[in-house]
Design brief:
The complex is a heterodimer. By secondary structure, chain A is of the alpha/beta class. Chain A has 19 helices and 24 strands. In chain A, strand 13 and strand 14 (about 320-325) form a beta hairpin. Chain B has 12 helices and 13 strands. Classes of the chains: A alpha/beta, B alpha/beta. Chains A and B meet through strand 9, helix 7, helix 9, helix 10 and strand 18 of A and strand 2, helix 3, helix 5, helix 11 and helix 12 of B. Strand 18 of chain A pairs parallel with strand 2 (about 70-75) of chain B.
């Protein structure tokens, strides 16, 4: 049997609430520390405890980190899902399983490794509850022995995870060693997969997108955060709370921020709008159902021209949908959120590095354009762990946009809030509390003239809406530009957000397996850069890859493109509720290309 | 007519004026705007320090009609509390004045109202209460009394929500009810509410001359005048006029407010103690049973911490902190990156 080095997808099937997350993190980190590119994806139910959950770790020497459909090694700990999990495996895969499940007889084309986990952890120590948790660390030891993970790296990863819990550290180390020793003595390796040390991860970090976003916000000078808990965005704010408490105390030792858990998403966004109006760098984080509730306030923010940053960590809708599964299903509704003529600025981070970068940059954009800015992440990007280069410190100082101070007003004598003085559609604003008799203006969601006075006049309405159109349209050139890869191929691919990782791998599969060369434009913001149109012009067929049913970015592109370019677009839209995999993209594009 | 008289910070009444009201002539809300304006003038509060916030409805239009020199935000229907909360988080030094109506507060906005009250956010929250929707031309609101009749003769079949009762139960620390037609009581109550630190909820019966001022309505001028039961006579001694005021021992309760001002309640009802929450609730329920419009300062608590005090924020407004205070240095990012490697 030919050995397969550093190309394996390992899935742990457990019951949620059983404490397997620590063990899975340790496995991920151990592989990472061995310098092998690795990614982890948690597929979990909307439930506290007792339902099946799967965690997939993919190690790949080429650095592919998207989900891979095929599982090479299954760790079967869950009686409920074990039979179906085993039935789904490809021939030649391996199964490590809890011995009492008796899976060995199910198939003859798999390698089976029975392990009596309860017996293994019995001598390790701890009470009954601890022993249950330690079963997980025991499978880490088994995996390490069978797939040649270096035990010192496993132990280092356990050390990092339990750094502040001496007793737990000791028990977990013992459990991992028990698993390792059992496998060495009792199991005969009968599959081709091994992990070997590489040098691919030097200097890299591992972080989830929500924590990266939180860090970005902190370095963006966020001062007011108001939120309502909702999966998969809650961990963004929880991570932010932890960082801010540690790093954002002022010279007086007091907080330079306020974080408030609101009574619902209506209040969360209302507080953001109030804070943004009063001059704070204010943000909230939510998911689809919260976005729906925020609709009316977002229209007010757009029309009264209040800076705000809204993270939408997308899950699967409509309605409550699949709360713990990933999608890119909010793009279209967010682009035009709220009634009447609105249009919003959207940012699409694809990596944890971009979650960090857009985390701070979104505030500069929101304050510059005086409008709500949405950052569209998703569950896959936000809640899963990703490798990354370390983040770079913001290269530009904080930009607060057009805010008039008392001294400015002394010089100018007065101002008109919604007058387009500079021809860019952006008026000057003042903050409540500015100590000047001409500072105040009347912010409102009702029709208004340039002086912010109530007006129902048609000319005022039209002038104001035209200016708002101009303002948001101008954002095209100022937002993060699309990223182009490749040149001269007849086939183009457009994608955004977390679909990026599957597209990278799919392009390689298309090239090497299907002889299809592609160019790739990764869109990073809406309104769309003019480069998007140029890209479509330069390609006969453009596949728009995204994780929703109807091809939502494709729809936005069709609104922008001239009529003769529209037929060039082909939607590759997938929404299984699982992170996008390369194979699905490759096969669909190849088939439509006649290969 | 220009009264050149200046207040203690050298401003004239004209410095507190707003745009011309577009509400109906005789609307109770206009009288309340007048009282708000004169309160701020007489207390010598600089308009620039005030933030006026409102929801949607006739009442919520009124911040345009006083104090043009104060920033103002006319927000969404029933959502003024959240916007006010955000504004105060951004700048804790603002003097926040919320103006709302009975529909805005007790129907569409009841969720935000109770949570604002629960947080004891430092804000004066005035409910201009006429029991009816004016801008949509005369539908009942949730504060309309059982049996009160619309102009069409339709009677309200649901019990009213008493916003004062709710506010007292859920954490407001200064709660009063007044009548737009009672100039003296309303003025005094407003001054005390501004001097108080915490959520002040003032439910001001403000008859709607267009849709709810007829025979059979329990929010008309005539009905309110006839059924007004003042708990006490009020007087207010601002901190900058700290003069001794004589009053008969045993007949007056004095409450020292946050800024050192004093509110005196000269007892008309012998047993009423406005710092007794249970008594306040009981007395309001009794008033409902008797069909009284109980007015006065129903409840005051000068001890409870406000929401802003509980957050551990720095004293300066977050909105204008220098960049160095809100963007941690490069070394912090290096630390965090090291921990993640």
């Amino acid at each position: 049997m030919a050995t397969v080095v550093n190309d394996v997808s390992l899935q742990v099937a457990t019951v949620n609430g059983s404490g397997s997350q620590s063990a899975n993190t340790v496995l991920l980190r151990a592989i990472f520390q061995m310098g092998v590119p690795v990614s982890g994806k948690n597929l979990f139910p909307s439930n506290i405890a007792g339902l099946p959950t799967w965690y997939t770790i993919r190690a790949n020497h080429d650095g592919w980190v998207a989900r891979k459909k095929e599982i090479d090694v299954l760790v079967a700990m869950n009686p409920e899902s074990a039979k179906e999990d085993v039935a789904n495996l490809r021939s030649g895969s391996a199964v490590i399983f809890d011995e009492p499940l008796g899976l060995s007889s199910l198939r003859s084309d798999l390698a089976f490794y029975p392990v009596p986990f309860d017996k293994l952890v019995q001598p390790v120590g701890g009470d009954a509850k601890t022993k249950k948790l330690l079963r997980n660390m025991a499978y880490v030891g088994v995996v390490a022995q069978l797939y040649e993970l270096e035990m010192p790296e496993v132990e280092r990863a356990i050390g990092k995870h339990f750094a502040k819990k001496a007793k737990a550290l000791e028990l977990n180390l013992a459990a991992a060693r028990a698993g390792f020793d059992y496998a060495r003595t009792n199991l005969k390796k009968n599959d081709p997969f091994v992990i070997q040390r590489m040098g691919a991860n030097r200097g890299k970090i591992i972080i989830d997108g929500n924590s990266a976003a939180a860090l970005g916000a902190m370095f963006g000078g966020v001062t007011v955060v108001t939120w309502y808990p909702i999966t998969p965005s809650s961990s963004l704010v929880e991570s932010l709370i932890a960082y801010m408490k540690r790093y954002r105390l002022g010279p007086d030792g007091r907080a330079t921020f306020a974080i408030v858990q609101a009574e619902d998403e209506l209040a969360a966004i209302g507080m953001v709008i109030g804070a943004g109006w009063a001059g704070a760098r204010a943000m909230t984080a939510t998911a689809g159902p919260g976005i729906s509730l925020m609709s009316e306030f977002v229209g007010l923010g757009y029309f009264a021209e209040v800076p705000a940053v809204i993270w939408d960590v997308q899950r699967v809708g409509p309605s409550t949908g699949l709360p713990t599964r990933t999608s890119q299903g909010d793009v279209l509704s967010v682009a035009f959120l709220s009634h009447g003529d609105t249009r919003h600025v959207l940012l699409f981070p694809a990596t944890v590095e971009e979650c960090f970068r857009f985390g701070w940059e979104a505030f500069d954009i929101a304050e510059h354009f005086q409008t709500p800015v949405f950052v569209l992440s998703d569950l896959d990007l936000g809640m899963n762990n990703w490798m990354s280069e370390p983040f770079s410190y913001p290269e530009q100082p904080i930009r607060r946009g057009k805010v008039l101070s008392k001294e400015d007003l002394d010089r100018l004598g007065g101002f008109e809030r919604y007058r387009d003085v500079d021809g860019d559609g952006i008026g000057y604003r003042t903050l409540p509390g500015t100590d000047h008799p001409a500072a105040a203006y009347f912010a409102r969601g009702t029709g208004h003239n340039e002086k912010a006075q109530y007006s129902e006049r048609s000319d005022d309405w039209e002038r104001n809406l035209a200016r708002l159109t101009r303002k948001v349209d101008n954002a095209r050139a100022a937002l993060p530009a699309p990223v182009l890869e490749g040149q001269g191929a007849p086939v183009g691919i457009v994608a955004y957000g977390s679909s990026h990782h599957a597209v990278l791998e799919a392009r390689e599969q298309l090239r090497s397996e299907k002889r299809i060369e592609t160019d790739y434009l990764r869109v990073r913001a809406y309104p769309l850069s003019r480069e998007v149109e140029s890209f479509v012009k330069g390609h006969e067929r453009v596949y728009v890859v995204e994780q929703n049913r109807d091809g939502q970015l494709g729809a936005l592109m069709r609104l922008d493109l001239t009529a003769e370019l529209v037929p060039r677009l082909r939607s590759v839209a997938h929404i299984p509720g699982l992170p996008l995999d390369a194979r699905s993209v490759t096969e669909e594009i190849a088939s439509r290309e006649g290969r | 007519m220009a009264d050149a008289k200046t207040n203690r910070i050298g401003l004239t009444l004209a410095d507190y004026q707003g745009s011309k009201s577009t509400l109906c002539a005789g609307c109770g809300h206009n009288a309340i705007s007048e009282r708000l304006l004169s309160t701020m003038f007489e207390l010598g509060i600089k308009p620039e320090r005030v933030a006026k916030l409102s929801g949607i409805g006739c009442s919520s239009k009124s911040p345009a009609y006083f104090m043009s020199r104060a920033h103002s935000f006319n927000t969404l229907h029933g959502r003024m509390p959240s916007v006010a909360t955000g504004a105060l988080l951004a700048n804790r030094t603002l003097i926040a004045l919320g103006v709302s109506g009975d529909g805005d507060t007790a129907s569409i906005g009841i969720g935000q109202f109770v949570h604002l009250v629960r947080r004891n956010l430092p804000l004066v929250y005035v409910i201009e209460d006429n029991g009816v929707y004016g801008l949509t031309k005369g539908q009942f609101s949730a504060t309309a009394d059982l049996g009160s009749k619309l102009k069409t003769g339709v009677a309200n079949e649901l019990p009213p929500i008493d916003t004062c009762l709710l506010a007292i139960q859920l954490g407001a620390t200064f709660v009063g009810r007044s009548f737009s037609g009672d100039k003296k009581q309303l003025s005094t109550m407003l001054k005390a509410a501004v001097a108080h630190r915490g959520t002040s909820v003032l439910d001001v019966i403000s008859p709607c001359v267009a849709f709810n001022d007829h025979e059979g309505s329990t929010k008309s001028y005539a009905y309110t005048k006839d059924h007004d039961e003042p708990l006490h006579e009020l007087s207010f001694v601002p901190v900058f006029e700290d003069i001794g005021v004589e009053y008969g021992a045993g007949t007056t309760v004095e409450v020292r407010l946050h800024d050192g001002s004093r509110l005196q309640l000269h007892k008309l009802e012998e047993s009423y103690e406005p710092r007794d929450k249970v008594r306040a609730v009981v007395r309001l329920l009794e008033a409902h049973a008797k069909g009284e419009v109980l007015t006065g300062v129903l409840y005051v608590n000068t001890e409870a911490p406000t929401f802003l005090d509980q957050l551990g924020m720095t004293e300066l407004p977050l909105a204008t902190l220098p960049a160095d205070d809100v963007r941690p240095p490069r070394s912090v990012l290096d630390d965090v990156m090291r921990a993640l490697s």
